[in-house]
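Narrative progress, year one. The postdoctoral researcher (J.K.) led the effort to move from monomer predictions toward full complexes, under supervision of the PI. The following entry was the first complex the group processed end to end, covering 1657 residues in total.
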Amino acid sequence: MMKNASLMLLILSCFASTSAFAWQAPTRELEEAEEQAFKRAVSQVAPSLVRIETVGGLDQVQNFLLGNGPTTGLVLSADGYVISSSFNFLSKPASILVTTTDGRRMTAKVIANDTVRSLTLLKVEADGLVPARAAAKESIKVGQWAIAVGRALDANAPNVSVGIVSAVNRVWGKAIQTDAKVSPVNYGGVLVDVDGTVLGVLVPLSPQDNSTVAGVEWYDSGIGFAIPLTDVLATLDRLKQGKDLRAGLAEFTFASTDMFGGDTKIDRVRYDSPMYRAGFKDGDQILELDGHKVTRPAQVKHVLGGKIEGEKLAITIKRGNETKQADLTLVGELPPFEAGFLGVLPTREKLAGGAEGVGVRWVYPDSPAAKLGLKPRDRIVKFRDQAITSAAQLIDQVSRVRPTEKAAVVVRREGKEQTLEATLAGYPADVPKELPTSPIEAAIEVEPKKPDGKVEADGDKKAEGSDKPRTGRFGEEVADSKNAWWAFVPESYNPAYGYSLLAWLHPPGDTLEATIFDSWKLEAERRGIILLGLKAANVGAGWQANEAEFVHEMVVSFQKKYSIDAGRVVLHGYDKSGPFATHLAFKHRDVFRGLILAASLITERPPENLPEYRLQFQLICGSKDPAHAFLDRNANSLRQLKYPANFTSLPDLEHRYPNADGVDAMARWIDSLDRL
Amino acid sequence: MGDCKLRIAKCKLQIERQPDNVPYRDRHGAAATEFRSGRSLTVAVRLGSRLMQFAICILQFAICNAFLTSDARAQTTRDTIAAVQPKVVKIFGAGGIKGLASHGTGFLVSKEGHIATIWSHVLDADVVGVVLSDGRRFTAKVLGAEPQLALAVLKLNNEDGTEFPFFHVDEAISAGSGTRVLGFSNMFNVAAGDEPVSVVHGVIAAKTTIEARRGVFDSPYSGPVFVVDGVTNNSGAAGGVLTTRDGLLLGMIGLELRNAKSNTWMNYAIPVKELSSSISQIISGKFEQKRDPRSDDTEPSAKPRRYKPLDFGFLLVPDVVDRTPAFIDSTLPDSAAAKVGLKPDDLVLFVNDELIQSCRALQDAIGRLESGDQLRLVVRRGNELVNVEMPVPKKREKE
Amino acid sequence: MIARRAVMCLVLVGWLAASAPAADQIVREAELKRVEVITRVTPTVVAVFAKGGAGGGSGVLISKDGFALTNFHVVSGLGPFMKCGLNDGVLYDAVLVGIDPTGDVALIKLLGREDFPIATLGDSDKLEIGDWTYVMGNPFLLATDFQPTVTYGIVSGTHRYQPPAGTWLEYTDCIQVDTSINPGNSGGPLFNSAGELVGINGRGSFEKRGRVNSGAGYAISINQIKFFHDQLKAGRVVDHATLGATVTTDSDGGVVVNGILETSDVFRRGLRSGDELVSFAGRPIHTVNQYKNILGIYPKDWMLPIVFRHEGERREIQARLRGLHAKSELMPNAPKRPQQPPPKKGKDGKPEKQPDQPLPPRPDPQAEALKKAIPEEWKSWFIAKTGYANYRFNQLEQDRVFGPLKSLGDFASATGSWRLIGQSTTGDKFELTLAVKGVGLEIRDSAFFQQLEDSDAADEPPGSGGFLIAAHQLRLLLSKGSTAFTECFYFGSEPLDGRGELVDVIDTTLSAVETRWFFSRSSGALLGMDSRLHEDAEACSVRFDGWNDFGGRRMPATWQVRSGEKEFATLKVSTADFAGKK
């Protein structure tokens, strides 16, 4: 009998490697030499690092608690230019102090921000500072030593973390990636090679989000980023002029939302954008950018990711059999996107299957549609020469026409078609005073037909879980987090109908669960709204930034379980849960299409209104609420950004949750979110 | 087992009292281990496998000799790890409720079986279980503790005089930033069975000091620490060791702690140099516990009157937010402040070299002054930094 | 602008060259070597994307025709087709091949090339604590240009055990590293410092900070995956093994059996409650944990050597291992996605550590539509069948293994009675008759008969394990191939009789009779068969030696017949007559 041990060898040898562990473990001598090299590299760069302290300012930004400890900056010139991470100044401090290695302490001025790379340029009045040496970008190799150095932990010596270069050209071509530990204790500090030459400036970044706190949640996880110093130096002169660097915009969107699997066909060219002015059109396919062949949206983003306002972009497109080439100058700002409004609520008839056109459920008084004489039961069968097959498609088509522009509409009434010309308007600020409900038929016990539209939940998934979805009021503690939730699904739930989802974020302290349930139950049944009440992990302390995932996942799980119209998913915050609701709505615009803020202000700057994310606002509060005037102003600023924003003032109401009239108004608003 | 009388003083955590012959639950939540004095113990394990559901096994562990013999190949890190692991132990004790781990780490500091570890709730049991890197199991009792240093010393019940490999604590060294280190601990209780503890690598990021504080993340320890760039401080890791790549003892891994200044979780170790004399004293029985400065009875009963900015003749702007910058609102004519030239809108940045980030911080700093001190201020006026200095006036009696 | 930037770089580089302090030569060389290793293995790292690009994980190529390893939890829920990016910048279509839900492994095949770069497989048992390792993959979906993230760290623990999430995703004998592993690294490679593949990353200990690396990541050892490789490649849903016995530690520190299933192979081979385990699969057993670790890395149905002590006497046996799950549990309709690991409440009421999962996909209506659209070009690479991840690959393996059978001769036309005549090694004459309606054997003045119609299969001759039925299975196989059986699949490979060469295994079922056929991987020859009358019966093992030509048809010359530990007879065939037309 063969020895048992040889069995394993035998099996394993079927995959035998040729190199048979030819590698040698590092020797003592090497480890010692490497350690010395790390220390020497740090001492090389140390004179160029300054310690930054700030005085005064905010202690929270976007529900993100800011530390108040020292941070780090990098000297770029002997005469006092210092670059740092914009993260270090999120608190908008009253004063910034810089301490050099030789012990000099000076006040610093913010000269300008590079919003593309999340950097801030400071200036101190000093001379004889020691600027850092930059490594050539092309020489940086994945796998080489990368040492992160900051000056936050110890006033007298740099703090160090050793790793390797994990990747280059990360975050759309902007950054070097490292597994050295990068965190607030070295943001604004540097990543150096084993000679102490600077590879880049450490900043938090994320490819999915471009806010200043994006990527901070990955601190010390082995995922860190540095902006190549050569890139910083290349734009230093522009920053020195005191003007913030903004992303260079060409502005177009792709038909495919699949970054990797999709192609580069343009869905929309933004009005008045460089692309628009160069004569590019919806439907053009991008072939080359700056000489790089591109076949996927991700590749396009890689070319555009690091572009700054004013930079050039060489673009080649294909239209039919033609190719067209142009050199664009990218802009920093565009007129806000504004969708046209026809004045129609479409019927909710997803299961009709193959029906031609979209039915009119209701017509807004004084709207373009009213002027054309459209009535309920009319069907819109064509818009701008496009045959219409679903409400979602019609919404998309209407949004491509700007207010005051004209569009041809083909309407069918009692079997006859007529072509009309509509002059579109902007979205109205008000909610219709009376709005008939959309009929919800009683659930029938047959398997619902497969939904066809974008707006329906996934029928397959429901079929898999054979359990009938729960209705009525229920809730539970979520096992893998501390957050609790409750939900109310109308008893008459019919999976054949597309429901609205109202995600209510309980404010800290008093959770108002009974109030919300009582005041919304009837509207939920009447207007087909599923209520989802979510509580912060620490109900007393309220929502923390890292709980965004919980809310997002809960909403997504409900979307999977229930038949929910993706166009009517609404976040609702009140009082102190308002800022978190706002933060979430801005962060997950792909999920949330409406935001209701009751007695709470928008404290975060709204992102740009984009055609691919249809976000509408409902602000509501009592006339005696101290926030009343501010909220009205909020609504106006939103409208200036061309967001559909409605402000509802409730007479004689103090600072409290809206009364029955208010809930009625909010419910009507939710029920009209699919307006077009 | 009633011989363990010593309780850790002032442990504020509400721990369920464990009966004698402490059963503890392991991380599967399904096993209970009972330690007996001496070398053997009984473990009841419910095996996870479906076909083994019916099986309840009674395991009797005996000594199996070290399988971690040093490797003949000259491979540095492997050598060091092989040499260090026999000196690091896993500790099982109280906890298991309210999110508190019931496992920890410690290290041998004498051949008789003294173990240094972190002072934590895990030790708040009459007797704790200790598992060596080779799977040998012992019970141990707390011999002494120094809460101010977050230190406790245990003694293994070692009736037949087994000799253990150990660290010479008086030979602990110090090292600067950039020095390569290894962290040894039973973090996350990954080494739940008989295996040796987890090893992580890193460098010393910095040497800094931490201050004792209370609250959600209790740090009993004040003083210098090694901050590490590897993730050393996880649940169950406290009490583990930080060594150089040669295996020389540097520090004891501390409790999980958030750095308020950067709002990040810290990875750090307390230098053993700070602990070694207390460890030796506890072992030799000569130890006298220092008073915990934070305990309420050390607070003087009558609080002295504290200085205010007004005592120097200036007033601050109204303190409206958490971090209201310490701008001077006005100065009183002929006051000390006026004499040294302080002006309205000056922003106070430093008080005796301490950075002042808010009105509140300035009130605190001035409040701590003593009669006879000098008050040195650095203020920002425009873009200039201006230094002024004035004596602290004599303390007036209570008003 | 660009020109100016270039000038700036030149200036800086020039300055750098003038004043840089050179790190020691050995530091540079070691660094260079590391860069080389990374450059060499990076092309093998796969970024796995869900259709729609909204979620995903990592993988690693192990064969030139595109087979790649990843985690089960990465591919579950993606459907049979997915997209995979390589560092050549190309996005390939890929098809699911096989899955191991218990071990959290999946095999996929990238399509469209026959010359994919591949990773060299290492020996994960040689890893030691402190060894440097590389992790590569797509954490947080950062590889937007398909260039993997590379992280570098040390082995923190070896032979670790991480308990299952429910009944899936059990990490036995796994590797713990402090090399950064984050969500999205799942399924990607762990390389040793020589750049050999030693594990598949799949889990991490995440606690106070949510799902970002906290210094402890876990990889499934490549040695475990090697045992399952051929089964996965056969498009199967594979299962892990259990012994059918439970063990405990006795007062002397031995690992002893304290409960045993009487229907298990080990029981039939003489293992009893109270016996002490000495070694398993060639590895000595000292503790219960060790035993669990070792057992966990083996596939169901493998025959493995076990050494134990029964009443002081040392015994060595070969036993076939049972499955950890019931067959129905492994069907695709059973919990397909192992849910997010069951909210396992830890002792402290807090959830236990959760296996790392790819980022939750963004709900994207278009992605749903895409998922349904199977690329036309690759449609033929997927065949759905209950019990398989992708039956197409099992067909391919069956075709490969059955191929050489055709060269044995035309048995299909031999429709009458077959008679095999010869002598046993003990000198007894025998005559074996294989007829359509029954099988008979005359030997040592005894006659045995097994009716084939309207009759239960019996242990004839008694104690042989049902040799007559086994012989009939051979006739069926030779004359009708796989169509003769109600079920026939390629199992994968296993060491023959637990200690021999690695052989291909075909598994057939006809009524209750299950037969495992063993084929040489080098020559393709049929080496033997194990046929059992029903699931819990002792098998009749027949081993063949030498195939002789009998009038244009080749039959085994020597039949060694055994049941369990007992030898029945060794038959040497001298003449064979196939009655039917030649």
